Each structure stands twice: as structure tokens, then as C-alpha cells.
TrEMBL record:
<feature type="transmembrane region" description="Helical">
    <location>
        <begin position="81"/>
        <end position="99"/>
    </location>
</feature>
<feature type="transmembrane region" description="Helical">
    <location>
        <begin position="53"/>
        <end position="75"/>
    </location>
</feature>
<feature type="transmembrane region" description="Helical">
    <location>
        <begin position="259"/>
        <end position="278"/>
    </location>
</feature>
<dbReference type="Pfam" id="PF02322">
    <property type="entry name" value="Cyt_bd_oxida_II"/>
</dbReference>
<dbReference type="GO" id="GO:0019646">
    <property type="term" value="P:aerobic electron transport chain"/>
</dbReference>
<dbReference type="GO" id="GO:0016682">
    <property type="term" value="F:oxidoreductase activity, acting on diphenols and related substances as donors, oxygen as acceptor"/>
</dbReference>
<keyword id="KW-1003">Cell membrane</keyword>
<feature type="transmembrane region" description="Helical">
    <location>
        <begin position="233"/>
        <end position="252"/>
    </location>
</feature>
<dbReference type="GO" id="GO:0070069">
    <property type="term" value="C:cytochrome complex"/>
</dbReference>
<feature type="transmembrane region" description="Helical">
    <location>
        <begin position="6"/>
        <end position="32"/>
    </location>
</feature>
<feature type="transmembrane region" description="Helical">
    <location>
        <begin position="305"/>
        <end position="328"/>
    </location>
</feature>
<keyword id="KW-0472">Membrane</keyword>
<keyword id="KW-1133">Transmembrane helix</keyword>
<dbReference type="InterPro" id="IPR003317">
    <property type="entry name" value="Cyt-d_oxidase_su2"/>
</dbReference>
<feature type="transmembrane region" description="Helical">
    <location>
        <begin position="204"/>
        <end position="221"/>
    </location>
</feature>
<comment type="similarity">
    <text>Belongs to the cytochrome ubiquinol oxidase subunit 2 family.</text>
</comment>
<feature type="transmembrane region" description="Helical">
    <location>
        <begin position="119"/>
        <end position="139"/>
    </location>
</feature>
Length: 339
């Protein structure tokens, strides 16, 4: 049953990056849109994410619950030593959701709409940034469980160039996913061309920040290149990601095959996550001094894992069909949500 729980944890993280990431990317795209196109971009994004945006955080909740119940020592260590970026990320989620709701459903349209818009776009940037910071910090070997002062225990564990560059890389990936997903929601060729250009720009930004991630890792003695390129699965995963990227750019130039482009973008992110996580499996957190926290060695009691696995399996029977029907129903009738 432990493998069922681990599979759900990995799937929840992946789906949050893909769906929640595209959700955050809507605000990132809006942030980097010119004033004359901002309203159209905002409306198009709302039509795409509005009806089901809250469901995206279900994957984050599942991941947190799995860690809390099934791997309490891992949950405690991460939530203690990375509590500052975690709190900032959670505040970003709350602020973004609140601003999104008020700017779209507020009964009074006044100057507060400008405030809501700013909160929405800035929190859309901050939240995935710190999500990337947390992920990088977990494997950077900077978490010191024996630290004797506040800065060493709770600040230097995440405030470093490697974590920061991964944060920017995560922001670029979210913007890239949002631009790719939104291309199929446009109603005219000019808008499609605009979002294709945004997708290319965000893709280039992701490549640039990806290069900075490797540079920062090299400077800080983190063997990122070894993690990714010293095993067959990692090489195959990254090769598949690169080949799918080439095909995606070809299809973008053709300005067609919208749904294939979406699949390719999701496939790229999946391959990148697979290459990174498989190298460390089952060690999910690398601590200072070469220590680690393992999904196998630091799991909860066998009875707890069994109950958690059964809850996840049974919950999927009820939740997943309802979620798919929700997405299908709103996609089928999305014209009714035009503002």
C-alpha cells in the first residue's frame, strides 16, 4: 500500500503543477500584457479558469494531507524549516483567490477593481515563485535540523541562489502552461497569434531560467547535472521533453493543433518532474550533511498507510468522475460564462 500512497503523492504534485500552474500562469500572463490588450486577456483567462479554478487547489490539499498523515516526520521537518516561504505561498493563494472572486463577482464596479487586479497578478507571481523555492530547498541539502540560530534554521535553508532561480523557473513554466492552454480559448486569429507569442516568450524565459538554475547549482555545489544525466531514465525523460518541445514549436508556427499542443506542454513538464524526482526516489528531502528523509524509511505506521491508501482509492471513485464532469460541463457551455 505504500506504493499506492507514493503514487498519489506524485500524481497530486504533478497535477497541481500542470493545472494549478496554468491557473497561476493566467495572472502572470496578465502581468506581462500591454494595457490595451489587458482587458481582453483578463476576460479570456476568466472564461478559461473561472468556473473550475478552485478545484485546482484540491491537488495541493491531497499532497499536504498525504504528507501529514502518511509521512509525519517529513511533513514536520519541511513545515518547520521552510515555514517562511510556506506561509508566504499560502498567503499568496488566499490573496489571489480573494482578489479573483471580488474582481469578477463584486456587485459594485469602482476603483477597488484596480486594487483587486494588482493583488491578483502579483500573488499569481509570488505563489508559484515560492512553490519553486520550497521544492528546490527540499533537495538542496540546505535544511539544517541541528541549527543553533534562527537564520541557519529558518532562513538560509531556502534563501540561496539555487532556490531563487528555481522559483523564477517555476514562474516561467506556469506562464508557459497558461499561454499554451489559453490558445484554444481565443475567438479570433489575432488573439491566437498574441497568445502564441506569449507562449514562445514564456518558453524562452523558462529556458533562460533553467540555465540559471544549473549555474546556481554549480556555484553552490549542488550536483544537479549528475542528478539528471547519470541515469538512463533521466536522460530518456529529458530527451523526450526536448523532442516534444521541438514538435510543439513546429505546431505553434503552424498555428493549429491546439489540443495536441496542450498535451505536449503537459508531457514536457511531466518528463522534467520525472527526471528530477526519480533520481532521488525514495529520498524526498535532502538535509545538510548528506542526511535525508525517505518515503520508505520515514513513513507512518503500516496500519496508517493502509488506511490512507484505501481512503485515496475510494475517494478517487467519487471525486474524479465528478471533477471530469465539472470540467466537461463548463467547457461544453463556456459561452454562457461570457461577461
Amino acid at each position: 500500500m505504500i506504493y499506492v500512497v507514493i503514487a498519489y503523492l506524485w500524481a497530486a504534485i504533478l497535477l497541481y503543477i500542470l493545472l494549478g500552474g496554468a491557473d497561476f500562469g493566467a495572472g502572470i500572463i496578465e502581468m506581462f500584457t500591454s494595457a490595451k490588450n489587458k482587458q481582453y486577456t483578463r476576460t479570456t483567462m476568466y472564461q478559461a479558469i473561472g468556473p473550475v479554478w478552485e478545484a485546482n487547489h484540491m491537488w495541493l490539499i491531497i499532497a499536504i494531507v498525504v504528507l501529514f498523515v502518511g509521512f509525519p516526520q517529513i511533513y514536520t521537518t519541511v513545515s518547520t524549516h521552510l515555514h517562511i516561504p510556506l506561509v508566504i505561498m499560502l498567503f499568496g493563494i488566499i490573496a489571489r483567490g480573494t482578489a479573483f472572486t471580488f474582481r469578477n463577482y463584486d456587485a459594485v464596479v469602482d476603483n477597488m477593481q484596480k486594487v483587486y487586479n494588482k493583488i491578483f497578478v502579483y500573488s499569481s507571481f509570488v505563489t508559484p515563485f515560492f512553490l519553486g523555492v520550497i521544492a528546490a530547498s527540499a533537495v538542496s541539502g540546505r535544511i539544517d535540523t541541528n541549527a543553533g540560530d534562527f537564520l541557519s534554521a529558518y532562513v538560509f535553508s531556502w534563501l540561496n541562489w539555487f532556490s531563487i532561480t528555481v522559483g523564477f523557473f517555476t514562474v516561467a513554466i506556469c506562464g508557459y502552461l497558461a499561454a499554451i492552454f489559453i490558445i484554444g480559448e481565443t475567438k479570433d486569429d489575432a488573439s491566437k497569434v498574441r497568445f502564441i507569442r506569449k507562449a514562445k516568450q514564456m518558453n524562452v524565459a523558462a529556458v533562460v531560467f533553467g540555465g540559471l538554475v544549473f549555474t546556481a547549482a554549480k556555484a553552490e555545489g549542488i550536483p544537479l547535472d549528475k542528478w539528471l544525466f547519470d541515469n538512463t531514465v533521466g536522460i530518456m525523460s529529458l530527451t523526450a521533453a526536448v523532442l516534444s518541445l521541438i514538435l510543439l514549436w513546429y505546431l505553434l508556427l503552424k498555428k493549429g493543433k491546439v489540443y495536441i499542443i496542450r498535451v505536449l506542454a503537459g508531457f514536457q513538464v511531466t518528463m522534467i518532474l520525472l527526471a528530477i524526482t526519480l533520481r532521488h526516489y525514495p529520498n524526498i528531502v535532502i538535509l545538510k550533511g548528506g542526511k535525508y528523509l525517505s518515503l520508505m524509511e520515514h513513513a507512518g505506521q503500516e496500519r496508517t498507510i493502509y488506511s490512507l491508501a484505501m481512503a485515496l482509492l475510494l475517494g478517487s471513485i467519487f471525486i474524479l468522475p465528478a471533477l471530469f464532469y465539472l470540467i466537461y460541463s463548463f467547457q461544453k457551455n463556456k459561452g454562457q460564462w461570457d461577461h
